């Protein structure tokens, strides 16, 4: 299927590895020019150079913290306007809410709620003027099924979902071809799950490998997802064919969520 987005420009956060890398790769393979953003310059440079050798589209990169105004400015210095924005940033650390201070909550909100909103604000009107725009916010399945030790993430990401539910339905956006959706990953084989399971391993004394096996068994698919399949789904959400999809929370979790709605 031709997704109809060749030649578009995409901004992808957290693009050096994991789910962000999967999204950047899938979009570039569809002919989308991508600006990859991540904090670790060495890892990002290697990822961008590897991808550039595999695709015909332009692959640019900038080592910056996309959750900060300075990082966002650096990304837009690479390219001035974007047709596609994939909001993606690492989640806050796991822990017990009794140990968190106000500063911990503010940091989580800045990274996982306010930064995506800032990028939405910066891009949607231009997208509407050009008649095409796709924003995909990578959040977490914990928004649907909260994880006890991920309280910072549960709260901040839920706030983003509440905001998107309203703005995505503005007629002046969606009637002009701009859609905003959330993509909620379940258990994917990324550094994030290693961090989360590592915290549990420290707490319970179990080995990391034992916890990985146990967690994979809880998924009806009996495995963790891959960055490649996540990226492919993200690319479809950015396609011309997905123009009637907006304001939705798409759960990609191998069937792990037990609810009907």
From TrEMBL:
Pfam families linked to this entry: adh_short_C2
Superkingdom of origin organism: Bacteria
Signal peptide (from-to): none
PANTHER family according to UniProt: 3-OXOACYL-(ACYL-CARRIER-PROTEIN) REDUCTASE (PTHR42879), NADPH-DEPENDENT REDUCTASE BACG (PTHR42879:SF6)
Membership in a protein family: Belongs to the short-chain dehydrogenases/reductases (SDR) family.
Name used for this protein in its record: 3-oxoacyl-ACP reductase
């Amino acid at each position: 299927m031709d997704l109809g987005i060749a030649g578009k420009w995409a901004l992808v956060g957290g693009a050096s590895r994991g789910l962000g890398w999967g999204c950047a790769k899938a979009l570039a393979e569809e002919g989308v020019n991508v600006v990859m953003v991540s904090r670790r310059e060495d890892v990002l440079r290697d990822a961008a150079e590897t991808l550039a050798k595999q695709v015909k589209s332009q692959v640019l990169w900038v080592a910056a913290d996309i959750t900060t105004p300075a990082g966002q400015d650096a990304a837009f210095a690479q390219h001035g306007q974007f047709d596609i924005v994939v909001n993606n940033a690492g989640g806050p650390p796991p822990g017990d809410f009794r140990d968190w201070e106000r500063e911990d909550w503010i940091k989580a909100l800045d990274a996982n709620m306010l930064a995506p909103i800032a990028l939405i604000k910066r891009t949607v009107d231009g997208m509407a003027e050009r008649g095409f725009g796709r924003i995909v916010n990578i959040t977490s399945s914990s928004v649907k099924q909260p994880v006890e030790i991920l309280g910072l993430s549960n709260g901040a990401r839920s706030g983003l979902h509440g905001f998107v539910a309203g703005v995505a339905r503005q007629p002046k956006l969606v009637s002009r071809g701009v859609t905003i959706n959330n993509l909620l990953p379940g258990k994917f084989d990324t550094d994030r799950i290693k961090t989360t399971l590592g915290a549990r391993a420290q707490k319970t004394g179990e080995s990391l490998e034992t916890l990985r096996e146990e967690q994979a068994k809880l998924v009806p698919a009996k495995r963790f997802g891959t960055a490649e399949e996540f990226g492919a789904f993200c690319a479809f959400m950015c396609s011309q064919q997905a123009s009637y999809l907006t304001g939705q929370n798409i759960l990609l979790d191998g069937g792990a969520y037990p609810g009907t709605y």
